[in-house]
């Protein structure tokens, strides 16, 4: 199997592309459609349907992987920190499958990005414990040990000093509060990453999300014993990771995960 379709559902846009699974790169242009408002499962499924249709010729009967910024347990979305509350306990995978008339694989957005970084990006081939965090509206996390993803880690919601961590350390908190990069790094990210380091002792921390383009403004200010590096696949990571996870599931079907 050489190609799969990856679709990344975000707060403002839903993006898709065909992914070359050998190279971990797009083999078509990316299509972006604005996220419908309100972004209910049915409304989002319509847009996902349009994207799948657009790529149907290139995809053939190849796999489809979809990301969402929520806990995804056995196809059911279990949280909605920064998305429409109607996703909580929605049979999301089933809703997409009914809309598309075929099987899909639904995964958490940060898990998808993390898998892509470990296969093709900043943590390529890493043999230890890698934690990939994405700093955006929220904080997403992927916990990957010896190449194996432990899904739905949700380390953005660690409670630190009485706060939901992402409410203070996400990129959106920096913007909302007008913090300079150095203040954000030393007063927010330092506390966040030292807590993650203490609790999990990772071998490598990877920082993704749009703000990672400016990593030189904040990562060098952090004092940690763990190596911390910017993500490399940037905004392709979610699409690439989702495509790979969908293909991987076909090779290794998991009766628990696939109902
Ligand atoms: C959500 C996660 C998501 C992250 C990044 C958090 O608020 O709880 O599921 O991965 O944001 O989008």
UniProtKB/TrEMBL annotation:
Organism this protein belongs to: Propioniciclava soli
Family listed: Belongs to the ROK (NagC/XylR) family.
Name of protein: ROK family protein
CDD domains, per database record: ASKHA_NBD_ROK_PPGK
InterPro entries: ATPase_NBD, ROK
